Amino acid sequence: MDLSTTYLGLKLKSPLMPGASPLANRLDNIRRLEDAGASAIVLHSLFAEQIEGNSIAVSRHIDRWQDTFAEATSFFPQGQDYLLGPDEYLSRISAIKAATSLPVIASLNGTQIGTWVNYAQLMEQAGADAIELNTYFLATRRSESSAAVEQRVIDIARGVRTAVKIPIAVKLSHFYTSIVHLVGELEDVGINGVVLFNRIFQPEIDIETFDVLPRLGLSSPEDVRVRLRALALMRDQVKLSMACSGGVHSAAEVVKALLAGADAIQVVAALLRDGPDRLGTIAEELKVWMAKFEYNSVSEMRGALSLRNCPDPEAYERGNYLRSLQLWRE
Ligand SMILES: Cc1cc2nc3c(=O)[nH]c(=O)nc-3n(C[C@H](O)[C@H](O)[C@H](O)COP(=O)(O)O)c2cc1C
C-alpha cells in the first residue's frame, strides 16, 4: 500500500503528521511520533509578540488605531509563559534535525508585517525544511474591510517569501469571504501550500463571575466538515499543496480529507488525548480502508471527490443547502 505524498514539494512517506502543538516539544514524543509513522514534524508557533516583545507588538496595534489602550499589554502572555524563547526555538529545530530524519516544519505566527518576519531566515538557517506561517487574526473594527484583512495576509506571506528559499505554507482560518480567491493570491506570491484551518479561539463567559475565559476545547470529528468543503472546492482551482488540520480523529476523517483533495493531514487533538502512538493506529486503519475499496495509493484517492467534475459548484452548494433543509424530518 503506497501512502506516499508530496507536500510543499517535500516527498513524504505518508500524509500523516502531527500539527502545530506542544506535541513536538519533547524529543521522546518526537521519537514516538516517528515510530508511529509521522512523515514530518510541525513545531508549535513562535509568536511575533515573543520575538519583538509585547510592547512593540502591542504598540503596533495601538498605533494603527490611535488607541490609548494601555491595558492591551496585559492581554498577552509574558516571556516565561511561552513554551520556548526565540533562541531556544531555533536550537530546538537543530536538535530535532539531529535526532530524527524527518523533515521539520517550523511555525511562525503574527498578524502584521514586522521585523519578526526576518525570523523565518533564522529558522531556515537552523535547518527547518519548511515554514508554516500562521496569521491568526480576527477582524474587530468596523472600518477594516475584508479586502484589507486579506491584504495583510498577502503582505505577510510576501515578506516571508522574500526572506527564505524553503517552502512556505500559510495556515488560514475559515473566516474569509472568498477563500479560493485568497488562496489563489497566496499562490501568486509564491506560497507553496495552505493549512486548512486554524481553530479559532472561542471565548466562554462564566455567568457566575462574569469573567470571559480563554478556553481551548479539543476538536471533534465534526470539525473536519468545514475543511472538506474548502479542500474539495479548491483542489482543482489551485496547484499549491493543501493540508487538512482540524477534526481528524480517526482514519475515517483522513479518508474524507484525501478524497476531498488534501495532500497532507495534520492531527493534534487525537494525539494529545490518546498519545503519539495513535498516529500509527490511524495509518493502519487507513490501509484497511484502502484495501477494502481497492485503492493502492493515496495519490489515487486524492481529490476523487473534489468538485472537479461539478459543472457549477455554486449551484451544487446552493442545491445541497436547500436539500438538507427540506429533507430534515423530526
Ligand atoms: C494545545 C494546542 C496548542 C496549539 N498550538 C498551536 C500553535 O502553536 N500554532 C498553530 O498554528 N496551531 C496551534 N494549535 C492548533 C493545531 O495545530 C490545530 O490546527 C488544531 O488543534 C486543529 O486540529 P485538531 O482538530 O487535530 O486538534 C494548537 C492546538 C492545541 C490543541
Describe the structure.
- The protein has helices at residues 27-35, 48-52, 54-65, 86-99, 119-125, 146-163, 179-188, 224-234, 251-260, 269-274, 278-292, 298-301, 313-326, and strands spanning 5-7, 10-12, 16-18, 41-47, 104-109, 130-134, 168-172, 193-196, 204-205, 212-213, 241-245, 264-267.
- The protein has 330 residues and is of the alpha/beta class.
- The strands form three sheets. It has an eight-stranded parallel sheet with strand order 3-12-11-8-7-6-5-4. The protein has a two-stranded antiparallel sheet with strand order 1-2. The chain has a two-stranded antiparallel sheet with strand order 9-10.
- Strand 11 (241-245), helix 9 (251-260) and strand 12 form a beta-alpha-beta unit.
- It is globular.
- The termini are far apart.
- Flavin mononucleotide (FMN) is lined by residues 19-22, 44-45, 107, 109, 134, 171, 198-199, 216, 219, 223, 245-248, 267-269.
Give me the secondary-structure topology.
Layout: E1 5-7, E2 10-12, E3 16-18, H1 27-35, E4 41-47, H2 48-52, H3 54-65, H4 86-99, E5 104-109, H5 119-125, E6 130-134, H6 146-163, E7 168-172, H7 179-188, E8 193-196, E9 204-205, E10 212-213, H8 224-234, E11 241-245, H9 251-260, E12 264-267, H10 269-274, H11 278-292, H12 298-301, H13 313-326
Parallel strand pairs: 3-12, 4-5, 5-6, 6-7, 7-8, 8-11, 11-12
Antiparallel strand pairs: 1-2, 9-10
Helix pairs in contact: 8-9, 9-11
The protein binds flavin mononucleotide.
